[in-house]
Specification:
Blueprint (H helix, E strand, L loop, with lengths): L1 E7 L6 E7 H7 L8 H10 L17 E3 L2 E5 L5 E6 L2 E6 L5 H11 L5 E6 L6 E8 L9 H19 L18 E2 L7 E2 L6 E2 L12 H6 L12 H21 L9 H15 L3 H11 L6 H16 L9 H16 E6 L4 E6 L8 E2 L2 H13 L6 H8 L6 E2 L1 H6 L11 H5 L9 H16 L11 E5 L6 H6 L10 E2 L7 H10 L2 E4 L7 H12 L2 E4 L8 E4 L3 E6 L14 E5 L12 H13 L8 H10 L8 H9 E2 L8 E3 L1 H11 L7 H13 L4 E4 L2 E8 L1
Parallel strand pairs: 8-11, 12-15, 16-21, 16-22, 17-18, 18-21
Antiparallel strand pairs: 1-2, 1-3, 3-9, 4-5, 6-8, 7-8, 7-10, 12-13, 13-14, 19-20, 23-26, 24-26, 25-26
Helix pairs in contact: 6-7, 7-9, 8-9, 15-19
């Protein structure tokens, strides 16, 4: 593995770049050069402090070391990224001396992922190099993937190394170009056989804590269970066990006695068993619904849980702080909240085993939450509830990423092409074209290509009743079907661009109804990788991530009107009704796509694919009246025929002599020129403009 050394001369502005093997560089830092620049730098630092503004005059003689990347020279003599090494550099600074440096190096060497650890050029710091890799042992290839991988790797390295280091790690902004000066360390730690940390390719740069991350950090494993029948059965079994213990302790208690006596003992046992508080309340109400008052039960159980947790021991808090802490505890105990980043909706679910689905938070829900808090004795106002729900206390939730991260392993059965086979057609290329489009759709959901969009769209053409729209809808799994729409209004351009980040699959139903004037905007939507716009109630223009891929349906066959080409569409004539009454294993369907993408399979359309599209789409191209008229009076010269070169205006003038309805406007002439180009006529540029070689009939 090669690392990069760059030395800059501040006076001349020249930059010297070189690379060397990492183990060779480690050997170099064991001894000082004749100039002893590192030793002189350290001697100077002994008599200076950070605020003195001292500067070592020969600092440029010490090159900067870039362990994460291997640079080369581009044609314009600039830096060119050649290879990403998957190495993260951690820094421990402001050490007192050599003894602390050696202590940090010894501690870092305890982890097998430590590739190298050595003293910094100041002699008061330690640089730790940590290796990372993808699950298959490789490293990201695309630069945008490298950046997100490196950022998440840096965060993971800090979390793993900080607990074993006696001094704090100096936090830096994660960057592949993080570097350090040439140094001197007679006894550096270097492990050629370092085992890299395994890290999956992230979806994007690290951001706020997500709903999934917060769930995984829940300490109580019972609280991490998803609502459902099995979870309810688990809690029921645990509760029955704790109830049996409580009844054994309360031997004299009978069914008609005061429930409060049993409730105190029962709540304590439930807490020790790890049963969530809300589940305890629910189970008590089920068992003793005739005797129990919900408010009394909830208050008693809550007080017991608080007492067992050790609440109420701090007396130095202000009333505002106490209210904030109690509201925070109430919210986390009673509800699960998440902010859906795709729909921009706040969602909630009651925290027990029988509420399975998240619902939108409206004003009625907010008022109910405030009333429940007041009933528990928490003095909150509506603004306190709104402030909580609009803060980072509510984690972000991305339904697409959450779904794709929980698919499981692919079983090896080809389900994507089987989904394509549901469409009866005579196009032999349909299976492979659909497969490529499907991979492209999933890859853009993952955010792998931020410079391009999934600009190619299948168009299903067939008679009414062939279930074309139903087929488009079943491409998405039920969990993500909220991200499907077949109502796109081209008149509202702002809403149409908002749809790029709101929906995952947009069906342009009745594609033939898209007018020629709207074709330009449609092309713009298809190829736009991101949407830059101001969200509702927002004050600034933001870049919104695009999720949308497109598909279309039509009953008419002549529907492609763009004379510049048709490579953006996969036109398929449906020859019989599509069988949509099938059972689709969606998790395996999308697991196959994820597996292919992770292994680096091509998900974009190459030149060969586009050539196939242009060829197979010819029968779906709409021939305008002026083009039909052109073919009535002109043709392309055959071999041996001289023909004549005419401009689009001259050809139109000739056609106008046959049909006076043709208007010789600038836009019509330009449009006609594109039609001539589409017909592959020979042309050349002259002083009078572009002329085409034609033969009159």
């Amino acid at each position: 593995m090669k690392i990069t050394l760059i030395r800059e001369d501040r006076e001349s502005g020249k930059e010297t770049l070189s690379t060397c093997e990492a183990d060779a560089w480690i050997d170099r830092i064991k001894t000082e050069t004749k100039e002893e620049h590192v030793t002189r730098l350290r001697s100077m630092l002994l008599y200076t402090n950070p605020d003195s503004g001292g500067y070592y005059e020969h600092i440029d003689k010490l090159p900067r070391i870039y362990p994460s990347v291997e640079f080369g020279r581009s044609r314009d003599n600039g830096r060119k990224l050649k290879h990403y090494n998957g190495v993260v550099m951690l820094e421990v600074n402001h050490l007192a001396g050599l003894s602390e440096v050696e202590l940090v190096k010894r501690q870092a060497a305890l982890l097998p992922q430590t590739w190298a650890a050595f003293a910094g050029s100041s002699g008061r710091s330690v640089k730790i190099w940590v290796k990372f890799a993808l699950p298959d042992g490789n490293l990201p290839v695309k630069e945008e993937n490298m950046e997100s991988f490196h950022a998440h790797a840096y965060r993971m390295a800090v979390q793993c190394y900080q607990p074993i280091l006696p001094f704090p790690i100096t936090l830096r902004e994660p960057s592949m170009t993080q570097s350090c000066r040439m140094t001197l360390d007679a006894y550096p730690y270097f492990n050629r056989q370092a085992i890299p940390f395994c890290l999956e390719q992230p979806f994007g740069m690290p951001g706020e804590e997500t709903f999934r991350q917060r769930q995984l950090t829940e300490k109580n494993p019972l609280s991490r269970l998803k609502p459902g029948y099995e979870t309810s059965q688990t809690f029921t079994l645990l509760f029955e066990t704790t109830l049996s213990k409580a009844l054994n302790e309360m031997e004299e208690w009978k069914r008609d006695d005061d429930l409060q006596q049993l409730l105190v003992c029962l709540a304590e046992h439930c807490f020790k068993a790890g049963i969530p508080e809300e589940e305890t309340v629910r189970q008590v109400m089920i068992h003793y619904f005739k005797q129990a008052d919900e408010t009394t039960v909830r208050t008693t159980v809550h007080n017991l849980y608080q007492e067992c947790k050790g609440f109420g021991k701090k007396k130095s808090l202000t009333p505002e702080q106490i209210t904030a802490f109690r509201l925070n505890e109430f919210m986390e105990r009673r509800f699960e909240f998440r902010f859906n980043a795709l729909t921009n909706d706040l969602e909630y679910r009651q925290r027990d085993s029988i509420h399975f689905y998240f619902k939108p938070v409206d004003q009625r829900v907010k008022n109910s939450i405030a009333m429940d808090a007041l009933q528990e004795g928490i003095r909150v106002w509506d603004r306190d509830v709104n402030r909580y729900l609009s803060s980072n206390r509510v984690p972000l939730y991305n339904p697409v990423e959450d779904y794709l991260c929980n698919l499981g392993r692919w079983d090896g059965k080809d389900r994507v092409r089987a989904l394509a086979d549901l469409v009866p057609c005579n196009n032999p290329h349909w299976r492979e074209l659909f497969y490529r489009w499907f991979l492209n759709m999933v890859a853009h959901w993952r955010g792998l290509d931020k410079l391009h969009s999934n600009s190619t769209s299948p168009l299903l053409v067939g008679a009414q009743g062939f279930r074309k729209s139903t087929y488009c809808r079943i491409i998405l799994p039920p969990e993500l079907r909220f991200g499907y729409t077949d109502s796109l209004d081209f008149k509202s351009k702002r809403d149409a661009e908002l749809y790029l980040g709101r929906f995952m699959l947009i069906n342009i139903d009745e594609f033939d109804q898209v007018s020629i004037n709207q074709q330009g905007f449609l092309k713009h939507l298809l190829q736009k990788p991101v949407a830059n716009l101001r969200k509702p109630y927002g004050s600034s223009i933001q870049e919104m991530r695009r999720y949308a891929s497109f598909i279309g349906t039509s009953n008419q066959k002549d529907l492609l009107t763009d004379p510049s080409g048709s490579r953006r569409f996969i036109c398929i004539e449906v020859t019989a009704p599509i069988d949509t009454n099938v059972t689709i294993n969606y998790r395996q369907l999308y697991a196959q796509a994820m597996e292919a993408i992770v292994k680096g399979e091509r998900y974009w359309f190459d030149d060969a694919d586009e050539a196939i599209l242009r060829e197979t789409n010819r029968e779906f191209e709409q021939m305008s009246p002026v083009e039909q008229l052109f073919h009535c009076y002109f043709r392309s010269p055959e071999e041996g025929e001289e023909g004549e070169y005419l401009s689009p205006m001259q050809i139109l003038e000739h056609l106008r002599s046959k049909n006076r309805d043709i208007k010789l406007t600038a836009s019509n002439v330009n449009h006609f020129g594109r039609i001539l180009r589409k017909n592959n006529l020979e042309y050349k540029r002259t002083c009078k403009g572009i002329v085409y070689r034609v033969e009159k009939l």
